[in-house]
Design goal:
This protein is α/β, with parallel strands linked by helices. 47% of the residues lie in helices and 18% in strands. It has two domains: 197 residues, inorganic pyrophosphatase (n-terminal core) (Alpha-Beta Complex); 100 residues, Roll (Diaminopimelate Epimerase, Chain A, domain 1). Bound molecules: manganese (II) ion.
């Protein structure tokens, strides 16, 4: 059996999670980096044996939150140090106080990316240039409009920053870099102060992805439809670009809300994006999905839902009603 690592970092495998994980690794060199997601977080946490556990960018699901809080409490009681940095909504199935009490450190705000939150907490303990990682994560999560990130952006050449962000966000859309091992290498590269573009092949991978994204736009332009105030594409191949597909649908149909839907075996997988940041997509997704027996959530500007097969029309009707 492996010896117990002193620190384990549990993070999400999207750009914000990769960057938040890199800030954590910068602060705790030699940590084990483990990628997880909201639906597998409970079991991954259950199998994490470490003196210190850093959790970043993982939403607590409504269903699992109570048993996650109990598990955290137990681990803390057994002597583990548990540090939590997140920006997702705390579900109504647990109280904020109970989450906070189950942790050694609780840093939570819905108004910033996980990367910004963890960077701000450790900024005096790590090299100043690691702020780039926080900026990449913030842009990657569409959360760069915070006072902290906007102010820090002024210190650097923002065009170079955007180039590096694109290398991560687009580069991981190809198979070569979409797996956990490749992403772990990315976390290590960023943590030691190198840039995404230093990773061999990543920029080329981003270029391939951007080509596909433009091809995708042409397809969406042809296939997007409207249902009242909502634009959508359903069961149109999106090549891993579900967010852009939803956004392009809104763009070409001149709607505020765009949806990309994929029919699975038993449910319909919904991705929602908006061109109007006054809409709260997570609220819309949650309410409309609940009406048709599904579940939804996410962020204000990027949300998703899972609804039972055969309820798509009704779901669109509900969204139209909510947006009135
Ligand atoms: Mn995030």
């Amino acid at each position: 059996m492996d010896t117990m690592p002193e620190t384990t970092i549990l993070t999400h495998a999207d750009p914000d999670g990769i960057c938040a994980g890199a800030v954590a690794l910068s602060r705790f060199p030699g940590s084990r980096v483990f990628f997880t997601r909201p639906t597998s977080f409970y079991s991954d946490l259950l199998h994490t044996e470490s003196q210190r556990i850093v959790i970043t960018d993982i939403a607590l699901t409504k269903q699992d939150a109570p048993r996650i809080v109990s598990l955290l409490k137990q681990k803390k009681h057994d002597g583990a140090e548990i540090l939590y940095f997140d920006h997702h909504t705390i579900p109504p199935t647990v109280s904020k106080t109970s989450v906070k009490n189950s942790l050694t450190l609780y840093v939570h705000s819905k108004r910033a990316s996980a990367s910004e939150l963890i960077y701000r907490h450790y900024m005096t303990d790590i090299p100043r240039e690691r702020v780039w990682i926080a900026i990449y994560g913030a842009i990657g999560d569409y959360a760069d409009d915070t006072p902290f990130v906007m102010e820090r952006m002024m210190n650097w050449d923002r065009r170079a920053l955007f180039f590096e962000v694109s290398a991560i966000c687009l580069g991981i859309k190809n198979e070569e870099f979409s797996g956990y091992d490749a992403k772990r290498r990315m976390v290590r590269t960023l943590a030691r102060g190198d840039n995404p573009s230093d990773i061999p092949g990543l920029v080329r991978s981003a270029k391939n992805a951007v080509n596909r994204e433009f091809e995708l736009y042409e397809i969406i332009k042809d296939k997007a439809q409207s249902h009242g105030r909502v634009a959508y594409v359903k069961d149109v191949p999106s090549f891993g670009f579900r967010g852009p597909s939803a956004l392009f649908a809104a763009t070409v149909r001149d709607s505020r809300l765009g949806i990309c839907a994929h029919t699975r075996e038993r449910y319909v997988d919904i991705t929602m994006r908006t061109r109007d940041y006054s809409l709260k997509l997570n609220v819309l997704a949650d309410r409309a999905a609940e009406k048709v027996g599904g579940s939804g959530g996410g962020h204000a500007a990027a949300a998703g839902a899972k609804i039972p097969k055969g309820t798509f029309r009704k779901f669109l009707d509900e969204l139209n009603r909510q947006m009135r």
